[in-house]
Amino acid sequence: MLQAKAYFDTHHHVGVIDQRIFSGFLEHLGRAVYEGVYDPESPLSDEQGFRRDVLEALRAMRMPLVRYPGGNFVSCYDWTDGIGPREQRPVRVDYAWKSRETNQFGTDEFMAWCQETGIAPMMAVNLGTGTPKEASALLEYCNLPGGTYWADRRIQNGHEQPYDVRLWCLGNEMDGDWQAGHVPAEVYAQRAKAAAIIMKGLDASIETVACGSSGRGMSTYLHWDRTVLEYCWENIDYISAHRYSENRRGDSAWFLAEGVEIDRVVEDYAALLNYVRGVKRSQKRVYLSFDEWNVWYKNMEMDGKGESAPHLLEEVYNLEDALVCAQYLSSFIRHADVVKVACLAQIVNVIAPLLTKRDGLLVQSIYYPIVSFAQHARGLSLVPALECPTYKAGERGDVAALDAAMSYDEASGTVAAFLVNREQRQEMRVVLSLGDQRFCEVLSVEVLGGGDAKAANTWEEPKRVTPRSAEAHVNEAGELIVTVPAPGLAVVRARVS
Ligand code: AHR
Predict the structure, then answer these.
(1) Could you say which residues of the chain have pLDDT below 50?
(2) Structural domain of residue 128, as residue ranges?
(3) Are 360 and 393 in a shared domain?
(4) Same domain assignment for residues 200 and 276
(5) Active-site residue (options: 35, 101, 173, 315)
Protein backbone atom coordinates (compact mmCIF):
# COMPACT_ATOMS: atom_id res chain seq x y z
CA MET A 1 0.00 0.00 0.00
CA LEU A 2 1.23 3.51 -0.84
CA GLN A 3 1.71 5.91 2.07
CA ALA A 4 1.09 9.65 1.76
CA LYS A 5 0.69 12.61 4.02
CA ALA A 6 -1.12 15.88 3.24
CA TYR A 7 -0.56 18.89 5.48
CA PHE A 8 -2.97 21.81 5.70
CA ASP A 9 -3.43 24.81 7.96
CA THR A 10 -6.70 26.73 8.19
CA HIS A 11 -4.77 30.04 8.08
CA HIS A 12 -3.01 29.07 4.87
CA HIS A 13 -5.67 29.45 2.23
CA VAL A 14 -6.34 31.08 -1.14
CA GLY A 15 -9.73 32.51 -0.29
CA VAL A 16 -13.33 31.43 -0.52
CA ILE A 17 -14.38 28.84 -3.09
CA ASP A 18 -16.85 30.39 -5.51
CA GLN A 19 -19.72 27.91 -5.85
CA ARG A 20 -20.05 28.96 -9.50
CA ILE A 21 -17.14 26.61 -10.29
CA PHE A 22 -19.79 23.87 -10.20
CA SER A 23 -21.75 25.28 -13.14
CA GLY A 24 -22.72 23.60 -16.41
CA PHE A 25 -23.12 24.25 -20.11
CA LEU A 26 -26.06 23.53 -22.42
CA GLU A 27 -25.68 24.00 -26.16
CA HIS A 28 -27.99 23.51 -29.10
CA LEU A 29 -25.96 20.51 -30.22
CA GLY A 30 -27.02 16.94 -30.89
CA ARG A 31 -29.59 15.80 -28.34
CA ALA A 32 -28.59 18.19 -25.56
CA VAL A 33 -31.59 20.49 -25.81
CA TYR A 34 -34.08 18.39 -27.81
CA GLU A 35 -34.47 14.96 -26.13
CA GLY A 36 -32.09 16.08 -23.36
CA VAL A 37 -33.65 18.83 -21.31
CA TYR A 38 -36.73 19.29 -23.54
CA ASP A 39 -38.70 16.32 -24.79
CA PRO A 40 -42.46 16.90 -24.89
CA GLU A 41 -42.99 13.37 -26.22
CA SER A 42 -41.35 11.62 -23.32
CA PRO A 43 -43.53 10.13 -20.57
CA LEU A 44 -40.85 11.45 -18.19
CA SER A 45 -41.48 15.11 -19.08
CA ASP A 46 -43.58 17.66 -17.23
CA GLU A 47 -46.31 19.85 -18.73
CA GLN A 48 -43.67 22.27 -20.13
CA GLY A 49 -41.93 19.40 -21.90
CA PHE A 50 -38.94 19.44 -19.52
CA ARG A 51 -37.48 16.07 -18.59
CA ARG A 52 -38.18 15.60 -14.90
CA ASP A 53 -35.49 12.95 -14.41
CA VAL A 54 -32.86 15.26 -15.94
CA LEU A 55 -34.03 18.13 -13.73
CA GLU A 56 -33.69 15.97 -10.63
CA ALA A 57 -30.26 14.68 -11.53
CA LEU A 58 -29.09 18.24 -12.15
CA ARG A 59 -30.54 19.47 -8.87
CA ALA A 60 -28.30 16.97 -7.09
CA MET A 61 -25.35 18.48 -8.96
CA ARG A 62 -26.23 21.88 -7.41
CA MET A 63 -25.26 23.82 -10.50
CA PRO A 64 -25.46 27.52 -9.72
CA LEU A 65 -25.30 28.53 -13.41
CA VAL A 66 -25.84 27.00 -16.82
CA ARG A 67 -24.20 28.62 -19.83
CA TYR A 68 -26.43 28.75 -22.95
CA PRO A 69 -26.99 28.51 -25.99
CA GLY A 70 -23.42 27.69 -27.17
CA GLY A 71 -20.68 26.94 -27.88
CA ASN A 72 -19.99 26.96 -31.59
CA PHE A 73 -23.75 27.13 -32.15
CA VAL A 74 -23.99 30.67 -30.84
CA SER A 75 -21.65 32.13 -33.46
CA CYS A 76 -24.28 31.74 -36.17
CA TYR A 77 -27.41 31.96 -34.03
CA ASP A 78 -30.05 34.64 -34.38
CA TRP A 79 -31.70 34.67 -30.96
CA THR A 80 -34.81 36.38 -32.38
CA ASP A 81 -35.62 33.09 -34.21
CA GLY A 82 -36.24 31.45 -30.84
CA ILE A 83 -38.86 33.80 -29.35
CA GLY A 84 -42.57 34.39 -29.90
CA PRO A 85 -45.33 31.92 -30.84
CA ARG A 86 -43.74 28.54 -31.48
CA GLU A 87 -45.66 27.84 -34.67
CA GLN A 88 -44.23 31.01 -36.23
CA ARG A 89 -40.60 30.30 -35.44
CA PRO A 90 -38.39 29.51 -38.44
CA VAL A 91 -36.62 26.20 -38.96
CA ARG A 92 -32.96 26.93 -39.73
CA VAL A 93 -29.81 25.16 -40.73
CA ASP A 94 -27.37 25.12 -37.83
CA TYR A 95 -24.04 25.98 -39.39
CA ALA A 96 -21.90 24.75 -36.49
CA TRP A 97 -23.17 21.18 -36.23
CA LYS A 98 -24.82 20.86 -39.67
CA SER A 99 -28.16 20.09 -38.04
CA ARG A 100 -31.75 21.30 -38.36
CA GLU A 101 -32.71 23.79 -35.68
CA THR A 102 -36.45 23.96 -35.11
CA ASN A 103 -36.24 26.83 -32.62
CA GLN A 104 -38.93 25.24 -30.49
CA PHE A 105 -36.67 25.85 -27.51
CA GLY A 106 -35.31 29.40 -27.28
CA THR A 107 -34.49 32.08 -24.73
CA ASP A 108 -37.88 32.06 -22.95
CA GLU A 109 -37.93 28.27 -22.69
CA PHE A 110 -34.39 28.29 -21.34
CA MET A 111 -35.37 30.86 -18.71
CA ALA A 112 -38.43 28.80 -17.76
CA TRP A 113 -36.22 25.74 -17.47
CA CYS A 114 -33.78 27.67 -15.26
CA GLN A 115 -36.64 28.76 -13.00
CA GLU A 116 -37.80 25.16 -12.75
CA THR A 117 -34.34 23.88 -11.79
CA GLY A 118 -33.34 26.80 -9.57
CA ILE A 119 -30.30 27.35 -11.81
CA ALA A 120 -29.27 30.86 -12.90
CA PRO A 121 -28.72 31.55 -16.62
CA MET A 122 -25.33 32.50 -18.04
CA MET A 123 -25.98 33.77 -21.55
CA ALA A 124 -23.61 33.78 -24.50
CA VAL A 125 -24.15 36.30 -27.29
CA ASN A 126 -23.25 35.91 -30.95
CA LEU A 127 -20.15 37.96 -31.70
CA GLY A 128 -19.24 35.79 -34.70
CA THR A 129 -21.85 36.65 -37.33
CA GLY A 130 -23.76 38.88 -34.89
CA THR A 131 -23.09 42.46 -33.90
CA PRO A 132 -22.68 44.18 -30.53
CA LYS A 133 -26.01 45.88 -31.21
CA GLU A 134 -27.82 42.53 -31.66
CA ALA A 135 -26.16 41.29 -28.50
CA SER A 136 -27.40 44.29 -26.56
CA ALA A 137 -30.91 43.71 -27.92
CA LEU A 138 -30.86 40.28 -26.26
CA LEU A 139 -29.76 41.88 -23.00
CA GLU A 140 -32.60 44.38 -23.32
CA TYR A 141 -35.04 41.51 -23.97
CA CYS A 142 -33.81 39.67 -20.89
CA ASN A 143 -33.12 42.35 -18.31
CA LEU A 144 -34.95 45.61 -18.94
CA PRO A 145 -38.28 46.16 -17.22
CA GLY A 146 -40.38 47.37 -20.20
CA GLY A 147 -41.18 50.55 -22.09
CA THR A 148 -38.56 49.84 -24.79
CA TYR A 149 -38.89 47.73 -27.92
CA TRP A 150 -37.22 44.45 -26.93
CA ALA A 151 -38.30 44.50 -23.29
CA ASP A 152 -41.88 45.02 -24.50
CA ARG A 153 -41.50 42.08 -26.89
CA ARG A 154 -40.66 39.90 -23.90
CA ILE A 155 -43.76 41.14 -22.10
CA GLN A 156 -45.89 40.51 -25.22
CA ASN A 157 -44.48 36.98 -25.26
CA GLY A 158 -45.99 36.49 -21.80
CA HIS A 159 -43.00 37.21 -19.56
CA GLU A 160 -43.76 40.29 -17.52
CA GLN A 161 -40.78 40.06 -15.18
CA PRO A 162 -37.23 40.61 -16.47
CA TYR A 163 -34.96 37.59 -16.22
CA ASP A 164 -32.16 39.48 -14.54
CA VAL A 165 -29.29 37.60 -16.22
CA ARG A 166 -26.06 38.62 -14.48
CA LEU A 167 -23.34 36.84 -16.46
CA TRP A 168 -22.79 37.40 -20.22
CA CYS A 169 -20.24 35.69 -22.47
CA LEU A 170 -19.08 37.94 -25.30
CA GLY A 171 -19.05 35.29 -28.02
CA ASN A 172 -17.46 31.86 -28.01
CA GLU A 173 -13.97 30.63 -28.98
CA MET A 174 -13.54 33.49 -31.40
CA ASP A 175 -9.86 32.57 -31.86
CA GLY A 176 -10.83 29.34 -33.63
CA ASP A 177 -11.00 29.19 -37.44
CA TRP A 178 -13.85 26.65 -37.13
CA GLN A 179 -15.93 29.43 -35.65
CA ALA A 180 -18.38 31.34 -37.85
CA GLY A 181 -17.14 34.92 -37.91
CA HIS A 182 -13.67 34.05 -36.58
CA VAL A 183 -11.41 37.14 -36.59
CA PRO A 184 -7.92 38.10 -35.38
CA ALA A 185 -7.54 38.96 -31.69
CA GLU A 186 -7.38 42.71 -32.33
CA VAL A 187 -10.69 42.67 -34.20
CA TYR A 188 -12.39 40.49 -31.62
CA ALA A 189 -11.12 42.72 -28.83
CA GLN A 190 -12.77 45.73 -30.49
CA ARG A 191 -16.06 43.86 -30.91
CA ALA A 192 -16.00 42.57 -27.36
CA LYS A 193 -15.25 45.99 -25.94
CA ALA A 194 -18.02 47.62 -27.97
CA ALA A 195 -20.49 44.94 -26.84
CA ALA A 196 -19.42 45.23 -23.20
CA ILE A 197 -19.75 49.03 -23.24
CA ILE A 198 -23.23 48.96 -24.76
CA MET A 199 -24.41 46.09 -22.60
CA LYS A 200 -23.07 47.49 -19.33
CA GLY A 201 -24.54 50.82 -20.38
CA LEU A 202 -27.97 49.17 -20.54
CA ASP A 203 -27.54 47.28 -17.29
CA ALA A 204 -24.61 48.26 -15.10
CA SER A 205 -25.10 45.26 -12.82
CA ILE A 206 -24.05 42.64 -15.38
CA GLU A 207 -20.66 40.94 -15.59
CA THR A 208 -18.98 40.10 -18.89
CA VAL A 209 -16.74 37.23 -19.97
CA ALA A 210 -14.40 37.80 -22.92
CA CYS A 211 -13.35 34.85 -25.08
CA GLY A 212 -9.92 33.54 -24.23
CA SER A 213 -8.06 31.28 -26.61
CA SER A 214 -9.66 27.88 -26.91
CA GLY A 215 -6.97 25.65 -25.50
CA ARG A 216 -3.34 25.13 -24.62
CA GLY A 217 -2.70 23.27 -27.89
CA MET A 218 -3.68 26.32 -29.96
CA SER A 219 -1.11 28.67 -31.47
CA THR A 220 -3.28 31.50 -30.13
CA TYR A 221 -2.80 30.33 -26.54
CA LEU A 222 -2.03 33.29 -24.25
CA HIS A 223 -1.14 35.64 -27.19
CA TRP A 224 -4.80 36.02 -28.03
CA ASP A 225 -5.67 36.33 -24.36
CA ARG A 226 -3.07 39.01 -23.74
CA THR A 227 -4.33 41.13 -26.65
CA VAL A 228 -7.93 40.83 -25.51
CA LEU A 229 -7.09 41.50 -21.87
CA GLU A 230 -4.97 44.55 -22.63
CA TYR A 231 -7.65 46.07 -24.83
CA CYS A 232 -10.72 45.18 -22.80
CA TRP A 233 -9.43 45.10 -19.20
CA GLU A 234 -11.68 47.82 -17.82
CA ASN A 235 -14.79 46.47 -19.58
CA ILE A 236 -14.69 42.81 -18.70
CA ASP A 237 -14.81 40.79 -15.52
CA TYR A 238 -13.59 37.40 -16.72
CA ILE A 239 -11.54 35.84 -19.49
CA SER A 240 -12.67 32.38 -20.55
CA ALA A 241 -10.58 29.20 -20.72
CA HIS A 242 -11.66 25.95 -22.38
CA ARG A 243 -10.07 22.54 -22.08
CA TYR A 244 -11.11 19.04 -23.11
CA SER A 245 -9.00 16.10 -21.99
CA GLU A 246 -8.68 12.69 -23.62
CA ASN A 247 -6.62 9.58 -23.15
CA ARG A 248 -5.36 9.90 -26.69
CA ARG A 249 -2.25 7.84 -26.05
CA GLY A 250 -4.29 4.97 -24.65
CA ASP A 251 -2.03 5.27 -21.60
CA SER A 252 -4.00 5.39 -18.36
CA ALA A 253 -0.96 6.20 -16.21
CA TRP A 254 -0.38 9.28 -18.36
CA PHE A 255 -4.05 10.23 -18.46
CA LEU A 256 -4.56 9.91 -14.72
CA ALA A 257 -1.93 12.63 -14.24
CA GLU A 258 -4.00 15.10 -16.29
CA GLY A 259 -4.38 17.29 -13.20
CA VAL A 260 -0.78 18.42 -13.70
CA GLU A 261 -1.73 19.94 -17.05
CA ILE A 262 -4.95 21.45 -15.72
CA ASP A 263 -2.98 23.19 -12.95
CA ARG A 264 -0.56 24.48 -15.57
CA VAL A 265 -3.34 26.05 -17.64
CA VAL A 266 -4.88 27.75 -14.60
CA GLU A 267 -1.48 28.96 -13.44
CA ASP A 268 -0.66 30.31 -16.93
CA TYR A 269 -3.82 32.39 -16.73
CA ALA A 270 -3.10 33.50 -13.17
CA ALA A 271 0.32 34.76 -14.29
CA LEU A 272 -1.09 36.47 -17.39
CA LEU A 273 -3.85 38.18 -15.41
CA ASN A 274 -1.30 39.47 -12.90
CA TYR A 275 0.98 40.62 -15.69
CA VAL A 276 -1.71 42.57 -17.57
CA ARG A 277 -3.00 44.09 -14.35
CA GLY A 278 0.55 45.25 -13.61
CA VAL A 279 1.08 46.68 -17.09
CA LYS A 280 -2.25 48.50 -16.90
CA ARG A 281 -1.51 49.69 -13.33
CA SER A 282 -5.12 48.82 -12.65
CA GLN A 283 -6.88 48.36 -9.32
CA LYS A 284 -9.47 46.28 -11.12
CA ARG A 285 -9.36 42.48 -11.08
CA VAL A 286 -10.27 40.17 -13.95
CA TYR A 287 -10.81 36.50 -13.12
CA LEU A 288 -10.90 33.21 -14.96
CA SER A 289 -14.15 31.71 -16.24
CA PHE A 290 -13.23 28.11 -17.12
CA ASP A 291 -16.50 27.84 -18.97
CA GLU A 292 -15.93 24.63 -20.91
CA TRP A 293 -14.15 21.64 -19.41
CA ASN A 294 -14.58 17.88 -19.57
CA VAL A 295 -13.20 14.69 -21.07
CA TRP A 296 -13.98 14.49 -24.78
CA TYR A 297 -12.54 11.90 -27.18
CA LYS A 298 -13.45 13.79 -30.36
CA ASN A 299 -13.54 10.58 -32.39
CA MET A 300 -17.27 10.68 -32.91
CA GLU A 301 -19.63 11.99 -35.54
CA MET A 302 -19.76 15.80 -35.49
CA ASP A 303 -21.90 16.32 -38.57
CA GLY A 304 -25.64 16.36 -37.92
CA LYS A 305 -26.39 15.68 -41.63
CA GLY A 306 -29.29 18.09 -41.59
CA GLU A 307 -31.21 16.18 -38.93
CA SER A 308 -32.99 17.64 -35.96
CA ALA A 309 -31.55 16.33 -32.65
CA PRO A 310 -28.97 13.96 -34.20
CA HIS A 311 -26.90 11.65 -32.01
CA LEU A 312 -23.66 13.67 -31.75
CA LEU A 313 -20.81 13.47 -29.23
CA GLU A 314 -22.58 10.96 -26.97
CA GLU A 315 -19.48 9.95 -25.03
CA VAL A 316 -19.48 6.94 -22.73
CA TYR A 317 -17.39 7.69 -19.65
CA ASN A 318 -15.34 5.32 -17.53
CA LEU A 319 -13.64 5.43 -14.15
CA GLU A 320 -10.46 7.14 -15.34
CA ASP A 321 -12.55 9.87 -16.98
CA ALA A 322 -14.32 10.42 -13.67
CA LEU A 323 -10.98 10.71 -11.87
CA VAL A 324 -9.81 13.29 -14.40
CA CYS A 325 -13.02 15.27 -13.79
CA ALA A 326 -12.26 15.13 -10.06
CA GLN A 327 -8.83 16.61 -10.80
CA TYR A 328 -10.38 19.48 -12.75
CA LEU A 329 -12.50 20.36 -9.74
CA SER A 330 -9.61 19.98 -7.29
CA SER A 331 -7.55 22.30 -9.43
CA PHE A 332 -10.33 24.90 -9.52
CA ILE A 333 -10.58 24.67 -5.72
CA ARG A 334 -6.81 25.01 -5.25
CA HIS A 335 -6.94 28.13 -7.45
CA ALA A 336 -10.01 29.65 -5.85
CA ASP A 337 -8.38 33.08 -6.00
CA VAL A 338 -8.34 32.93 -9.83
CA VAL A 339 -11.12 30.59 -11.00
CA LYS A 340 -14.50 32.09 -10.14
CA VAL A 341 -16.69 30.32 -12.71
CA ALA A 342 -16.33 26.91 -14.35
CA CYS A 343 -18.84 25.06 -16.53
CA LEU A 344 -18.90 21.34 -17.10
CA ALA A 345 -19.35 20.92 -20.86
CA GLN A 346 -21.94 19.71 -21.18
CA ILE A 347 -24.87 18.61 -19.02
CA VAL A 348 -26.91 16.04 -20.92
CA ASN A 349 -26.44 13.72 -23.95
CA VAL A 350 -23.54 15.70 -25.46
CA ILE A 351 -20.17 15.00 -23.75
CA ALA A 352 -22.23 14.75 -20.59
CA PRO A 353 -22.71 12.95 -17.28
CA LEU A 354 -26.32 12.10 -18.22
CA LEU A 355 -27.66 10.19 -21.23
CA THR A 356 -31.34 9.97 -22.01
CA LYS A 357 -33.56 7.67 -23.98
CA ARG A 358 -37.23 8.44 -24.27
CA ASP A 359 -38.10 6.45 -21.15
CA GLY A 360 -34.85 6.31 -19.22
CA LEU A 361 -31.79 8.07 -17.85
CA LEU A 362 -28.26 6.72 -17.61
CA VAL A 363 -26.02 8.28 -14.97
CA GLN A 364 -22.40 8.11 -16.12
CA SER A 365 -19.26 7.73 -14.01
CA ILE A 366 -18.29 11.42 -14.21
CA TYR A 367 -21.54 12.43 -12.53
CA TYR A 368 -20.48 11.13 -9.13
CA PRO A 369 -17.35 13.14 -8.36
CA ILE A 370 -19.08 16.28 -9.57
CA VAL A 371 -22.03 15.75 -7.21
CA SER A 372 -19.70 15.00 -4.36
CA PHE A 373 -17.49 18.07 -4.85
CA ALA A 374 -20.47 20.38 -5.35
CA GLN A 375 -22.12 19.06 -2.20
CA HIS A 376 -19.14 19.32 0.10
CA ALA A 377 -16.69 21.99 -1.06
CA ARG A 378 -17.64 24.98 1.09
CA GLY A 379 -15.75 27.95 2.49
CA LEU A 380 -12.02 28.50 2.23
CA SER A 381 -9.67 26.60 -0.04
CA LEU A 382 -6.71 25.38 2.02
CA VAL A 383 -3.28 25.06 0.43
CA PRO A 384 -1.95 21.47 0.48
CA ALA A 385 1.65 20.44 1.15
CA LEU A 386 2.14 16.83 0.09
CA GLU A 387 4.58 14.13 1.09
CA CYS A 388 3.77 11.32 -1.27
CA PRO A 389 5.31 8.79 -3.63
CA THR A 390 5.57 9.49 -7.33
CA TYR A 391 4.65 7.12 -10.12
CA LYS A 392 5.60 6.82 -13.79
CA ALA A 393 3.03 8.80 -15.76
CA GLY A 394 4.28 7.96 -19.27
CA GLU A 395 5.57 11.03 -21.10
CA ARG A 396 4.73 13.22 -18.13
CA GLY A 397 7.54 11.54 -16.20
CA ASP A 398 7.40 11.07 -12.43
CA VAL A 399 4.23 12.57 -11.03
CA ALA A 400 2.87 12.73 -7.47
CA ALA A 401 0.52 9.79 -7.02
CA LEU A 402 -1.82 11.87 -4.85
CA ASP A 403 -3.90 14.83 -6.00
CA ALA A 404 -5.43 16.68 -3.03
CA ALA A 405 -7.64 19.67 -2.26
CA MET A 406 -9.40 20.69 0.96
CA SER A 407 -12.15 23.14 1.84
CA TYR A 408 -12.68 24.57 5.32
CA ASP A 409 -16.04 25.91 6.42
CA GLU A 410 -15.29 28.09 9.42
CA ALA A 411 -18.95 28.54 10.40
CA SER A 412 -19.60 24.82 10.88
CA GLY A 413 -16.02 23.92 11.86
CA THR A 414 -15.86 21.26 9.15
CA VAL A 415 -13.47 20.37 6.36
CA ALA A 416 -13.91 18.35 3.19
CA ALA A 417 -10.90 16.63 1.62
CA PHE A 418 -10.84 15.53 -2.02
CA LEU A 419 -8.17 12.91 -2.65
CA VAL A 420 -7.38 11.19 -5.94
CA ASN A 421 -5.01 8.21 -6.04
CA ARG A 422 -3.60 8.29 -9.57
CA GLU A 423 -1.74 5.02 -9.16
CA GLN A 424 -3.61 2.04 -10.59
CA ARG A 425 -2.21 -0.89 -8.66
CA GLN A 426 -1.77 0.12 -5.04
CA GLU A 427 -4.28 1.62 -2.64
CA MET A 428 -3.05 4.69 -0.83
CA ARG A 429 -3.15 5.27 2.92
CA VAL A 430 -3.40 9.04 3.31
CA VAL A 431 -2.77 10.86 6.60
CA LEU A 432 -4.36 14.30 6.73
CA SER A 433 -2.82 16.73 9.17
CA LEU A 434 -3.99 20.22 10.14
CA GLY A 435 -1.18 22.42 11.47
CA ASP A 436 -3.37 24.60 13.67
CA GLN A 437 -6.28 22.29 14.54
CA ARG A 438 -7.13 18.64 15.23
CA PHE A 439 -9.59 16.39 13.49
CA CYS A 440 -12.20 15.40 16.03
CA GLU A 441 -14.96 13.52 14.22
CA VAL A 442 -15.28 11.83 10.83
CA LEU A 443 -18.64 12.85 9.35
CA SER A 444 -18.61 10.89 6.10
CA VAL A 445 -16.31 9.08 3.71
CA GLU A 446 -17.28 8.30 0.15
CA VAL A 447 -15.01 6.49 -2.27
CA LEU A 448 -15.24 5.89 -6.00
CA GLY A 449 -13.15 3.46 -7.98
CA GLY A 450 -10.65 0.73 -7.38
CA GLY A 451 -10.01 -1.87 -10.06
CA ASP A 452 -10.61 -1.45 -13.76
CA ALA A 453 -9.93 2.13 -14.89
CA LYS A 454 -11.98 1.38 -18.02
CA ALA A 455 -15.12 0.33 -16.10
CA ALA A 456 -18.14 2.30 -17.32
CA ASN A 457 -21.87 2.47 -16.68
CA THR A 458 -23.98 1.28 -19.59
CA TRP A 459 -27.70 0.81 -20.16
CA GLU A 460 -27.14 -2.90 -19.52
CA GLU A 461 -25.00 -2.37 -16.43
CA PRO A 462 -25.87 1.09 -15.11
CA LYS A 463 -24.34 0.80 -11.62
CA ARG A 464 -20.86 -0.45 -12.38
CA VAL A 465 -19.17 2.79 -11.34
CA THR A 466 -20.93 4.28 -8.34
CA PRO A 467 -19.63 5.68 -5.06
CA ARG A 468 -19.76 3.74 -1.80
CA SER A 469 -19.31 4.61 1.87
CA ALA A 470 -16.03 3.84 3.55
CA GLU A 471 -14.27 4.34 6.88
CA ALA A 472 -11.68 6.76 8.15
CA HIS A 473 -10.31 7.24 11.64
CA VAL A 474 -8.65 9.89 13.73
CA ASN A 475 -5.42 9.01 15.57
CA GLU A 476 -4.20 10.28 18.92
CA ALA A 477 -2.34 13.13 17.32
CA GLY A 478 -5.63 14.42 15.84
CA GLU A 479 -4.74 13.36 12.29
CA LEU A 480 -7.23 11.70 9.98
CA ILE A 481 -6.36 8.49 8.17
CA VAL A 482 -8.20 7.25 5.10
CA THR A 483 -7.54 4.69 2.36
CA VAL A 484 -8.02 5.76 -1.26
CA PRO A 485 -8.75 3.02 -3.86
CA ALA A 486 -6.39 2.35 -6.79
CA PRO A 487 -7.13 4.26 -8.91
CA GLY A 488 -9.81 6.18 -7.12
CA LEU A 489 -11.27 9.13 -5.30
CA ALA A 490 -12.03 9.58 -1.61
CA VAL A 491 -14.11 12.48 -0.32
CA VAL A 492 -13.88 12.84 3.44
CA ARG A 493 -15.82 15.23 5.64
CA ALA A 494 -14.77 15.83 9.21
CA ARG A 495 -15.28 18.12 12.15
CA VAL A 496 -12.19 19.96 13.36
CA SER A 497 -11.39 22.15 16.35
O1 AHR B 1 -18.74 21.68 -26.21
C2 AHR B 1 -18.57 21.37 -27.56
C3 AHR B 1 -17.84 22.47 -28.33
O4 AHR B 1 -16.52 22.58 -27.87
C5 AHR B 1 -18.38 23.87 -28.16
O6 AHR B 1 -19.43 24.13 -29.02
C7 AHR B 1 -17.21 24.73 -28.47
O8 AHR B 1 -17.23 25.95 -27.78
C9 AHR B 1 -16.02 23.86 -28.11
O10 AHR B 1 -15.07 23.82 -29.11
Answers:
(1) none
(2) 18-376
(3) no
(4) yes
(5) 173
Predicted pLDDT at 301: 82
The rounded Cα 240 to chain-centroid distance in angstroms is 11
pLDDT tens per residue, range 432-449: 999 999 999 999 999 999
| Catalytic site includes residue 173 | yes
Residue 453 is part of a domain; what is its CATH number?
A: 2.60.40.1180
Is the alpha carbon torsion for 485, 491, 495, 497 positive or negative? Answer: positive
- ω into 49 cis (within 30 of 0): no
Q: Is 292 in the pocket of ligand 1 (CB under 6 A)?
A: yes
Helix 185-202 × helix 132-143 angle, to 10°: 30
Q: Is the CB of 71 under 6 A from ligand 1?
A: yes
Q: Which of 28, 33, 67, 72 to mutate to test the pocket of ligand 1 (most atoms within 8 A of CB)?
A: 72
pLDDT at 217: 84
Q: Domain end: 376, 397, 426, which one?
A: 376
Give residues with Cβ within 8 angstroms of 122, minimum separation 6.
23, 65, 66, 67, 68, 165, 167, 168, 169, 291, 341, 343
One domain for residues 280 and 388: no
- Clarify whether residues 362 and 475 are in a common domain: no
Please provide residue 275's backbone torsions phi and psi, each rounded to the nearest 5 degrees: -60, -50
How many domains are contained in the chain?
A: 2
